[in-house]
């Protein structure tokens, strides 16, 4: 499964500046863990994280379902571009 594309399609619907959205898969020390970074503008990252992290937790839960089917753990981190 292409976790990067799935997460990017999901996040694209939630951000305003769609051209600044980027999702990258980074290497992990644990072979069963996939690390995904979501990069966007500062205001869009705030939107993706939500109040008290509610939106970020929902995105993580949604994405973790497919990871569990493949016996993998997904670690999703949100970063804003320096502006």
From TrEMBL:
Q: Which Pfam families does the UniProt record give?
A: KH_KhpA-B
What InterPro entries does UniProt report for this protein, alphabetically? KH_sf_prok-type (IPR009019)
GO molecular function per UniProt = RNA binding
Q: Which UniProt keywords apply?
A: RNA-binding
Q: What is this protein called?
A: RNA-binding protein
Q: Which organism is it from?
A: Massilimicrobiota timonensis
């Amino acid at each position: 499964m292409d976790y990067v594309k799935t997460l990017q399609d999901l996040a694209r619907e939630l951000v305003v500046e769609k051209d600044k959205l980027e999702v990258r898969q980074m290497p992990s020390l644990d072979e069963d863990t996939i690390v995904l970074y979501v990069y966007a503008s500062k205001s869009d990252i705030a939107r993706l994280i939500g109040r008290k992290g509610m939106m970020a937790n929902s995105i993580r839960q949604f994405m973790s379902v497919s990871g569990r089917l493949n016996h993998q753990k997904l670690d999703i981190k949100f970063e804003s571009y320096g502006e």
